Amino acid sequence: MQTTFPRLLIQHASERPRAPAMREKAYGIWQRLTWADVLELVHHLACGLHQAGLRRGEHMVVVGSNRPRLYATMLAAQALGAIAVPLYQDAAAAECIFPINQADVRFALAEDQEQVDKLLEIRDQCPQLDHIYYDDSRGLRKYDAPCLAALDALQATGRVFAQLHPDFFLAEVHKAQPGDVAALFFTSGTTGIPKGVVHTHYSLLNRARVGADFDTLTHCEEVLAYLPPAWIGQNIFSYAQWLACGYVVNCPESAATVGIDMKEIGPTYYFAPPRIFEGLLTSVLIRMEDAGSLKRGMFHYFMGVAKRVGPARTGGTPVALADRLLYALGNLCVYGPLRNTLGLSRVRVAYTAGEAIGPDLFSFFRSIGINLKQLYGSTETAVFVCLQPDAQARADTVGVPCEGVEIKVADNGEILVKSPGLLKEYYKNPSATAEVMGQGGWYHTSDAGFIDAHGHLKIIDRVKDVGRIQGGANDGALFAPKYVENKLKFFPHIKEAVAYGDGRDRVCVFINIDFDAVGNWAERRNLPYAGYTDLAQKPEVYQLIKTCVEQVNADLSADVLLAGSQISRFLILHKELDADDGELTRTNKVRRGFIAERYSVLVEALYAGRTEQFIETQVRFEDGRTGTVCATLRMEDAKTFAPVKVAA
Predict the structure, then answer these.
(1) Which of 494, 608, 469 is nearest to 549 (CA)?
(2) pLDDT of 80-121, one tens digit each?
(3) What is the rounded distance in angstroms from the CA atom of residue 55 to the CA atom of residue 401?
(4) Contact 556/484 with Cβ under 8 angstroms?
(5) Distances in Å between the alpha carbon of 216 and those of 220, 348, 383, 446, 527?
């Protein structure tokens, strides 16, 4: 699209001034902002920021949840030719230092007291940060830092300036060109220091428009914005596509009310990483465990029908009359109420991305009538590289290249991409830019995969993570840790898994149980426990998880390429993996190398064949304090299976 974000805002406000643009839930009531309201807010904020000294080409940090005034501030900065830098709201204060200093940030907007406290805490290490504005004033009445001011005050100043200079805002907006830098996104830092990904108005809006055209999105869509705005996936769906299509973005009251808010809004266009869908399925299965025998029997019967009939219906394959009638009855009794309970009744298109989704999990949602599809992309590609057509959605592929994208596979199996949505550069990091941008403009994704016979892309794992078993009965066998981990995470009792095996004679796995699911399971069996650590080490829980592990092994034995990746031994960790402890990225991706180093004593104990190992681990609490968690962890062997021979 040959335009910019602020120009699109002006266009929507001109064509549909009274149409809803955003809703925000406050004190249990949905508050509506029209396109005219948003434009007026952006106009005044832009004038206020100009008065405060924000200039073209500078960066402005925005840290907080999805809030209309945070989005408006990003638009206001972009209207002045400045560059929006969204940061993760759950990041620790120390994690904000690098991006603020790297981008020479002088201006920041913080959502509330929690975010203000972080920025004030690091001001000594970021001396150039001399303007901090806040949206929510609760708890900030007696703060007297000279750099601190309310967004309301900025808006009021801007309103006065706008009255005195009525042509200023439009003149600034029209100075910007589509090729100008619009936003800077910092990667999650899975393997090291985060990198600042530079995107232009054109790269973001081009991909937003391509994705919208692919799924025929219109201004009638309803979207719930509940994931971190600093994650480019949420930013594309609730910011770039919002402005490209003109649909309504709804901001929930808090993370705790997302489930209720979803039911009230009934989104038509929905996006979530696999972890969210895993959580939804887990909640369903927990409810079924607590249901009466009649309801439970009805659920399992009709889910069997859905599993048999659902894929044919969504894939456009003819279905027998008897099966159509059974499915319709199931829709009336089970699938429809279930979609309504999950808040997905009106969903027309649902996407998942960020990492691979388990095939059974994927099939579950599609079989009950939810048009769940996978997409493939990254921060560097402005998300949209591959998309799945409605009738060609499969769990083992990520779709076909979308408009404007070229894909080829390097000799080492790495996926290379050309796209109008590619990053301009890594900010102040020419060596990293040169490393990923190859000859001829091909971007190196670091993902290993191949194009199948139907033209769909299949991703195996990260190139650096795909390895080989060395020694033992499976010497030389292919090892793809993410593939193994995702198969484990389908089970509602397993929240996270970390697999090791490259260069070793067998595969061993760390497992995090899902505390809610396993806790419910334990309570139904009158199994007492004192907390996560105690529950995780119960012999009964180990037996439960062992059943899941051995089922994965049975599945892997039928996979020609990955039969050697079966899990020989496992343990259940004494604590949940946490981004605050450095074990996960802010997008909840496992930092496998860091975990291996931190828990090296456990890795070695697994491979040494020990049955238990004491471990003491330092943890960081939400309020910044630190403590320790210690336990003696059990280690279990798992049954493996001979590879299934495929008939010639």
Answers:
(1) 494
(2) 999 999 999 988 899 999 999 999 999 999 999 999 999 999
(3) 38
(4) yes
(5) 11, 10, 18, 31, 51
| Residue 215: count of CB within 10 angstroms of its CB | 18
Instruction: Please report the sign of the dihedral spanned by the C-alpha atoms of residue 450, residue 230, residue 254, residue 620.
Output: positive
Inter-residue contact 510 to 497 (CB < 8 Å): yes
Angle ∠(417,423,427) on CA atoms, nearest 5: 140
pLDDT at 648: 42
Residue 96 and residue 108: Cα distance in Å, rounded? 11
* CA atoms within 13 Å, Cβ hemisphere of 376: 33
- Give the C-alpha separation, 532 to 8, whole Å: 49
CB 371 within 8 A of CB 348: yes
Dist CA 491 CA 480 (whole Å): 19
Say yes or no to pLDDT of 54 above 60. yes
Closest CA to 392 of 409, 372, 377, 407: 372
pLDDT of residue 192: 63
Return all residues near 254 (Cβ < 8 A) that are at least 6 apart.
Answer: 65
The predicted model gives 480-489 an average pLDDT of 86
Residues in the chain: 648
Cβ atoms of residues 84 and 78 within 8 Å: yes
Q: Give CA–CA dist 357/379, Å, rounded.
A: 19
Enter the pTM of the model.
0.84
Tokens in use for 335? 């699938």
Q: Give the pLDDT band of residue 620 (cuts 50, 70, 90).
A: confident
Nearest to 638 by CA among 514, 545, 521: 545
Beta bridge partners of 251: 24
> Above 60 in pLDDT, residue 399?
yes
Whether 189 has a pLDDT exceeding 70, the answer reads: no
Domains located in the chain, CATH noted: 5-271 (3.40.50.12780), 467-637 (3.30.300.30)
